[in-house]
Design brief:
Elements lengths: L8 H8 L8 E7 L4 E9 L5 E2 L2 E4 L4 H21 L5 E8 L2 H4 L2 H12 L5 E2 L8 H7 L20 H20 L8 E5 L5 H11 L2 E5 L3 H10 L4 E2 L3 H5 L6 E4 L18 E2 L12 H7 L3 E2 L2 H4 L2 H9 L5 H9 L1 H15 L3 H19 L1
Parallel strand pairs: 3-5, 3-6, 4-5, 7-8, 7-10, 8-9, 10-11, 11-12
Antiparallel strand pairs: 1-2, 2-5
Organism: Streptomyces seoulensis
Pfam family, one: ELFV_dehydrog_N
Catalytic activity: L-valine + NAD(+) + H2O = 3-methyl-2-oxobutanoate + NH4(+) + NADH + H(+)
């Protein structure tokens, strides 16, 4: 392993900030023969080995990749804690364009990097990586999940990720409107990729009205062709201003909720699959001030990590689906805690997750 240059002082400061909980370890990886440049961030192992996916993305520079890995790893600690898993949080990012730079040799080199950590970090799929990629990584690293059923894995984790988000929406409806049914509710989905397309199916089956957008026209074309009842809009800016929108579901990259989107958002609920939806601290309070109920992203999108964690112990889909269904109860409990403590739901979720991690550290 060799150092990746270009990491700024601000990024390094974030690594050790006490208000971020601190990161235990960050590994900067490079393999010149294959062109691999990657960052593996381990935020916490208080609850067990760090578990989190591998993102393959064309970051503008190495500093941006490190910053993203740090933020995503911290989110995984909280997600795994709230999902009741015996895993800490970690995340890896591979720097590059997966359409151009993905090769078998690069993925094998990445697998060797993960294996060198001796099980402190367990990897899986994320944005830009797929089941077939994890099958390749697993040839060099036994701490790999999200593999194909043919290779002893659980397959596509986006299936249960979408199911968990759907349960979070039902809980939000129960809390806000007194009924978990989503029938006739207007749900806008920004991003209909791996998770969003499955979410569309759950919503239509319950009778919701679904509106979608995606930066890739072909993704929307596929959804509309498969489900003619789905409406499309040109872009996210149009979607968030849509009259009559009940639920907004960000299902692409993070930072969807910021100083520009929150003031114009017409939805009463935000519940989506994207990680790190709040662009900066304080956005959760802005949502609350506008009367918008926010279902914390790392709580409702935990179905996928529940699935890949189960893979380590002999995968059983129905067992995982039952665990993912509990996201409904967990989300309701967070809303109740938020009301009791007089804080936004995001803060309430953080408090519950932090307490579980603190209890685990104390028990050690």
């Amino acid at each position: 392993m060799t150092e990746v240059t270009g990491v700024t002082a601000d990024v390094l400061h974030t690594l050790f900030r006490s208000d971020q909980g601190g990161h235990e370890q960050v590994v900067l990886c490079q393999d010149r023969a294959t062109g691999l440049k990657a960052v593996i961030a381990i935020h916490s192992t208080a609850l067990g080995p760090a578990l989190g996916g591998t993102r393959f993305h064309p970051y503008p520079d190495e500093a941006a990749a490190v910053a993203d890995a740090l933020q995503l790893a911290r989110g995984m600690s909280y997600k795994n804690a709230m999902a009741g898993l015996d895993h800490g949080g970690g995340k890896a990012v591979i720097i590059g364009d997966p359409a151009r730079d993905r090769t078998e040799e690069l993925l094998l080199a990445y697998g060797r990097m993960v294996a060198s950590l001796g099980g402190r970090y367990v990897t899986a799929c994320d944005v830009g990586t797929y089941v077939a990629d994890m099958d390749v990584v697993a040839r060099e690293c036994r701490w790999t999940t999200g593999r194909s059923p043919e290779q002893g894995g659980a397959g596509d984790s986006s299936v249960l990720t979408a199911f968990g988000v759907y349960q979070g929406m039902r809980a939000s409806a129960q809390h806000l409107w007194g009924d978990p049914s989503l029938r006739d509710r207007v749900v806008g989905i920004a991003g209909v990729g791996k998770v969003g397309r499955h979410l569309v199916g759950h919503l239509l089956a319950e009778g919701a009205q679904v509106v979608v957008t995606d930066v890739r026209d072909e993704a929307v074309d596929a959804i509309v062709e498969a489900h003619p009842a789905v409406r499309r809009v040109a872009d996210t800016a149009t979607l968030i201003r849509l009259a009559g929108l009940d639920i907004y579901a960000p299902c692409a990259l993070g930072g969807a909720l910021d100083d520009h989107t929150v003031p114009v958002l017409t939805a009463s609920v935000v519940c989506g699959a994207a990680n790190n939806q709040l662009a900066h601290p304080g956005v959760e309070k802005d949502l609350e001030d506008r009367g918008i109920l926010y279902a914390p992203d790392y709580v409702v999108n935990a179905g996928g990590v529940i699935q890949v964690a189960d893979e380590l112990h002999g995968f059983d889909f129905e067992r995982c689906r039952a665990k993912a269904a509990r996201i409904f109860d967990t989300t309701l409990a967070i809303f109740a805690r938020a009301k009791a403590d007089g804080v936004p739901p995001a803060a309430a979720a953080d408090r519950i997750a932090e307490q579980r991690m603190a209890d685990a550290r104390a028990a050690r």
